[in-house]
Structure prediction request, 282 residues.
Amino acid sequence: MVNQRDTFTKHFCCDDDCYKYLASLKWQEDKFVCKKCGNTTYHKGRSLFSRRCNRCKYDESVTAGTMFEKLKFPILTAFNIIYRMVKEKEGVTSTECAKKFQIQQRTCWTFMNKVRLVMGHIYPKQLNGDVGVGVFDVIDENSVGWRRRWNMPKERFLLAVEVKDRRMKKAVTEVVENVDLEVIMSFIDRHVNPDAHIIFETRKRGFKRQLQDRYKSIEFPYGWRPLEFYFENLQDWLYRDIHSFTFKNLQQYTNEYNFRRNNPKNSRKAFNAIICEMVKNN
Prediction:
């Protein structure tokens, strides 16, 4: 039986395989538009898979304008790191990847952070059914000099979790500086279907009357276990597996956690979605 790892190595066994795949995504249906003059005709460039404009002679590499531009290690290594980030159930650290692929840890961490940002752009469709929404605090337990837990440095984020048939299906998080009514409603409007049944966590913030006027199906229980359970797992993962976790990178790390939980079965599809997004954005 062929596993997913065997399938990955079959498709990407050298750098040229990766560049060929990037070219197929960047110039889909063989459509080329010169970034310098806007011309649409080209011929083969100096390097493999690059394209040279017939008018201005600008030579564009396959990685130009993508998040793979000026990569400090082989493109095949980058693909392998992304695949491991997607496939490993609990994720991988930059230290582990740096050791495995023999690159500097800081360079690996910087690239993995780019991937985490992209994961946040690939949001699931609007959450539907029963959707728990709440405000949660992540506390910096490693802070020195803070004796009382309630007085420790902390970061706040909004969390929405979709539950169907008593199972958590999808989740979205958003780190925020200040939590007010406008921030909460903007978060709900972007990520929750208007027909969803919203369960709002009241222990963190109220706004009952305003939210009831805005959303036709909403309730305010004193705690909702699926929402709290998801947060507890997320927090445990941050403290246990991400040794370099800092508030500055909290959004990126929650993006990674949510992305794997939102795409638990088809790691190949999730991998392709990340590569496509990295080709489109820089």
